[in-house]
Amino acid sequence: MKIWLVACSKGGVGKTTLAVNLAAAKAAAGDQVTLVDADPQGSTTRWSERRAALGSVIPVLDGHNRTQVRRLPAGAGTAIVDTPAGVGERELEPFLDVANAVLVPMQPSAFDIEASARFLDALAVHPRVRRGALPVALVVNRSKPQTQASQQAVEMLRGWNFPVVAQLRDSQAYTVLTGLGRSLFDYHSAQVRSHQDDWQPLFHWLRKQG
């Protein structure tokens, strides 16, 4: 079993969007996957309920008791943990102790990056991260890669020595599909496939982590 932790102290950066699309991509590939909803807002749980009503079930577990992540059921496969905004290293400790990888979604603006600086600094000195036992990667959400602002933001992010493993384009499709209990990986049109291509570097990085 693997545990992928999706976390960032800044709200509104797309943690739930990242978590549910990752889960849907794993399910579409025929892999066993479980969502763990540790966010009191319950967005991941509502997405899973909408999806189940459409006949496509991805199980979700209550992650508010953070110690439960140590006792995931047999057959959970890859557990993807959606964490709340405003969470710090201490609150994440039970997850950081057992996670196989941490994904930090960020929006491409200096304001968002500066607001998350303390969180990134805390991750960098966490014992498991520092000794290379817990890989951390950054995912740029709502990216407009041709703009100077996005390019400058990526350069700022590289200052933490965490790899920027994907830039997911700014698209209303994420909001619409997530609201329906769907994901990018439920469709196969040419337009959707171009969005799916944005995720390939992230999938590649996750496979390298074993």
How does CATH name the architecture?
Answer: 3-Layer(aba) Sandwich
Question: CA-to-CA gap between the ends?
Answer: 11 Å
Oligomer: single chain
The gyration radius over C-alpha positions equals: 16 Å
Give, in spatial order, the strands making up the sheet with the most strands: 3-2-4-1-5-6-7
| Silhouette | globular
Number of helices: 10
Major sheet details? 7 strands, parallel
Order of helices and strands: EHEHEEHEHHHEHEHHH
Low-pLDDT residue intervals, each spanning 5 or more residues: none
The CATH homologous superfamily is named P-loop containing nucleotide triphosphate hydrolases
The gist of it:
The protein has 210 residues and is an alpha/beta fold. It has ten helices and seven strands.
Task: Note the topology.
Elements: E1 2-6, H1 15-28, E2 33-37, H2 43-53, E3 60-62, E4 78-82, H3 89-96, E5 101-106, H4 110-115, H5 117-125, H6 127-130, E6 136-143, H7 148-157, E7 164-169, H8 172-179, H9 190-197, H10 200-208
Parallel strand pairs: 1-4, 1-5, 2-3, 2-4, 5-6, 6-7
Structure notes:
The structure is a single chain. The chain is an alpha/beta fold and 210 residues long. The chain has a single domain, classed as P-loop containing nucleotide triphosphate hydrolases (Rossmann fold, 3-Layer(aba) Sandwich), CATH 3.40.50. It has helices at residues 15-28, 43-53, 89-96, 110-115, 117-125, 127-130, 148-157, 172-179, 190-197, 200-208, and strands spanning 2-6, 33-37, 60-62, 78-82, 101-106, 136-143, 164-169. The protein is globular, with a radius of gyration of 16 Å. It starts with a strand and ends with a helix.
